[in-house]
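Protocol step 6 of 9: fold each sequence in the batch and record its structure tokens directly after the sequence line. For illustration, a two-sequence batch is reproduced in full.

Sequence one:
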Amino acid sequence: MYTEQQIKEQRKAKIISKIITYSFLTIMALVILIPFYWMIITSLKSAVEIEQFPPTLFPRQIVAYNYVEALERANLLRYFANTLIVSGFSTLFGTFFSIFVAYALSRLQFKGKEIIFTILLATMMIPGEMMVITNYITVSNFGWVDSGFGSRVTNGPYYAMIFPFMISIFHIYLLRQTFKQVPNELYYAAKVDGTSDWKYLWKVMVPLAKPSIITIIILKLMGAWNSYIWPNLVASENYRLITNGLRAAFSNSDTGRTEFQLQMAATVMVTLPLFIVFIFFRKYIMRGVSRSGIKG
């Protein structure tokens, strides 16, 4: 039995622990939210107010026209279209490829399966930056690179941005772990009924792995949406993605200064779609990761 003094000390310790925990979480939330808040209020300020010191914590006069001017100045609609094309095709083909490879590595029996899977996992240890030069040489030989004078292949920059990074070993691993959690008895029962592997994949495995597949689609879209270095290397102005447009579209050629109010307005418009996607599909991301057995 605990004495009254011990019970009071335990309660006091719990209260102190909660205060420390919630204080830490509050500080970290502020660290994350303050840049977003600053981005939004900057997008609503005038150029004169941005240059004032000390900076204001809220716009003295809300200038919503910054968003309209940002669209016109940066040609964001063109960049949005390029980003949708690249992210759409890379996500579509990459997801189908991940499903096929993950199913083969989890259900089909063939010699060297474990060796192939080990080699695929080993490639995850190689930083992506190490493959930039070899990939650039490859797409250059195919005539896909557009350095400003046009590419030898029509719409070559699209191919250069889609194919080299279309396949993700992490997505294959994620789906393989999900497929392996499906009981073998279900597969054997389907084979007894005369179900082909193709039909079993699309009628049984894919519906059961829906959370993981949705997770892959979201991660793939976000990766293509946020890519910067590679599109900057292989694409000219007409083919660049939204992140490249944000970087150089708002520099005033007369003064050499960056018009931050327009740049932040464009950044808000670019960030908003990803934010909405994450809000509505976050439960699928959490469910997909938990079903795959990955702990982090």
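Sequence two, same batch, same settings:
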Amino acid sequence: MSSAKPEREYFLDSIRAYLMLLGVPFHVSLIYSTQRWSVNSHDASLWLTVFNDFIHAFRMQVFFVISGYFSYMLYLRYQPNRWLKVRMERVGIPLLTAVPLITLPQFFLLKNLTDKVGDWSRFSLYEKYNALMWDLISHLWFLLVLVILTALGMLTFRWLRQQQHRIDYHQVGWGKLTLALLAYALLWCAFRRIIFYFAPTLLMDGLFSIAVMQSLFFLPFFMLGALSWKHPALKALFVRFNPVMCFGAIVVFIAYCLNQRYSSGEGWLYEMDALISTLMGLCMLNVCFSFGHKLLNSHSPRIMYLVNASLFIYLVHHPLTILYGIFVTPHISNNTLGFFTGLVMVFGIAFLLYEIHLRIPLLRFLFSGKPQQPK
């Protein structure tokens, strides 16, 4: 256990906050994209579809690298049991709070005002359970994955801590990292394909899809973040701009869009998506870390405000976006105007709710997992 606190990584805080806040334009643009969502506009917008695809192609991979980085940092600061308690509270309490206060009302909103849920009265018992799993977890899926990766961290971090420096990470470059993560992604694809052949209904199960498949997919990114804390040479690689990775992000994103448009779910859509998303995550990891380190690595009260507000904004924005899609979108014929109007309305109401919740101690605790002093 180490009691010394390292210098604050302002650029990582900032990147993590911006990635969380990107959830708002991601879901607002979903309304106007070709993707079928809870609510859709009458006509799809090409540029908003591409914009939506771009956010989705890399955002969570980079987020889980940062989560692994900070999680391992805290693991070394506390005793393991204390670390597990603190992390579970910080992640689990907002998750458990958001289900009855956010996603459960959201489920009834979707059930009664949209056709997303379907004919509930005709559902079998399992179909009702599965629909509830998808809609109660909803946009909270990353919190559930974080809870699972945190629990696994008791094993993976202990293993990592005990590992001697068998690898000279000064000699590790993007080529070796890419091959290593692609090898893992291929194993994930093989595992999914086996399930597809022998138990395909499992892949449609909401809880299994998120708790098992998503957790396994993001595990290497989470561990990559932990490795970058343990080995400064790896972190230095991430923050040093590499033009090949920047150009690679463009090429891989084109491949991502083509896969989304021309592959099918019965074919190799999801396996190809896993391989492409792994590559996109690595390329954008370098882009985000290098530009973030250059532009965001300083203390700013306004940035820290966004850092503190980002989780709450993410939690509440989803039902606000659905409400906007149901009641406002049909009255705005121009998709671009509708998108920016939606951003203003969703962000505005979300930040208003954030300021209200700051003044209620119980809500501050429930949505952060830690006691907070009032302003």
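Proceed to step 7 once all outputs are recorded. Observation for sequence two: The chain has a mean pLDDT of 93.
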